[in-house]
Amino acid sequence: MDRELAHHWQPDSWQSCTAGQQPLYPDAAVVARILAEIRNLPPLVTWGEVDKLRRQLAEAARGERFVLQGGDCAESFDDCTAEPIANKLKILLQMSLVLVHGLKKRVIRVGRMAGQYAKPRSADHETRNGVMLPSYRGDLINRSGFTAAERTADPGLMLRGYEHAALTLNYVRALVDGGFADLHHPEYWDLDFVRNSPLEAEYRRIVQSIVDSLNFMETISGQPLSESSRIDFFTSHEGLHLLYEQAQTGLVAETGRWYNLAAHFPWIGMRTADVNGAHVEYFRGIANPVAVKAGLGMTADQLLELCGVLNPHNEPGRLTFIHRFGAKHIADRLPPLVEAVSRAGKQVLWICDPMHGNTEATTSGVKTRRFENILAELETAFTLHEELGSILGGVHFELTGDDVTECTGGARGLTDTDLERAYKSQVDPRLNYEQALEMAMRIVARKMRR
Ligand code: PEP
Ligand code: CO
Fold this sequence. Notes:
Layout: H1 3-6, H2 28-40, H3 47-61, E1 65-71, H4 82-103, E2 106-112, E3 125-128, E4 131-134, H5 148-151, H6 156-177, H7 186-189, H8 200-221, E5 234-235, H9 242-247, E6 249-252, E7 257-260, E8 267-268, H10 278-284, E9 290-294, H11 300-310, E10 319-323, H12 330-343, E11 349-352, E12 360-361, E13 367-368, H13 371-388, E14 392-398, H14 433-449
Parallel strand pairs: 1-2, 1-14, 2-5, 8-9, 9-10, 10-11, 11-14
Antiparallel strand pairs: 3-4, 6-7, 12-13
The structure holds phosphoenolpyruvate and cobalt (II) ion.
Phosphoenolpyruvate (PEP) is lined by residues 73, 120, 269-271, 293, 295, 324, 356, 428.
């Protein structure tokens, strides 16, 4: 199939396809007014940044860089405050430092941040005590409280979503530009949470070794390395709510291409990855690097069709598959997909999301994930790609920079009963600060063992 020839793409051409997971708004005129307002507002990211990321992802696909993508399952407007944003940036920076040090590769940092506000749901409705209401679909769409008013899709939330994304990104950019990520800045190394942790000694050792190398380089060159310690930070979210994404899609005169300028690296979730569906239709026309989640149920043929539609020119860096099978299934499910893609000569970047295939409920019904299963899936992913002659070019985590208790295990050995202490996620359980840092260390430790 050559869809490019079959029909011309427009930012709204997806509207003639079946679109899953879209909100039902009560008043179309209000929706149109809000979307017009969003269309007029300035973009959140620039096409130059988007192109730069695409080039870097092409390098990751060749094994020359490594992608660290992470953040909340769903960001909430309430958490758009200084501390959670800074903490999330900080844990991602610290993990990336551990990875740079251990993998000896440059790391591409991508936040699930500044726009991760819309969630796919397995059921359209939720019933409590005999009352049935629409499911909560993320702060971009409705509210989490269980009343009819709160669960009704509110188009005004799209505007609030754009604003909260802009506020988040503004602060992230200020922190990065203001030296938060400068290797000389003490905040960067802050060990608050790691203090008294089983990881403290190891983390200190890594930090000391980086500081030593830095001092050595500065002595040799006779000047501070501040310029070269400036970092890039990119944003990503699930491009789920197509009217909202469309409103932030612009034609760039310099390149003659359409870009989604709401995020650098949008992805298609597992529930909306149908090759004939509206999401794939929208994504095929934007110039951004794009990712698709691949889980149980994704066949090799479907994957190849997605390559054909989303990356017809086989451009490196354009298409990423984020596989998420779960520790139990990855060894059976991943190899046929990787083999098919390699055999067909398709250029893709493989990233492992070890979170979404490992969700389970405790005996008291709390949604959680076990550290050991997350790690097991990740380690199997590295091994399988090595055996198959392909490259695992990155990892994708749900994490927070705060001290929550949502996933069990890790160096501190959190148990099911610990989950009550600080379970904050409205949706999926995230690695806390310490578990996330440990995960980065375990990735590096695996490499050292080999
Ligand atoms: C997610 O990333 O939060 C998510 C819903 O993932 P998936 O589409 O892989 O289920
Ligand atoms: Co999730």
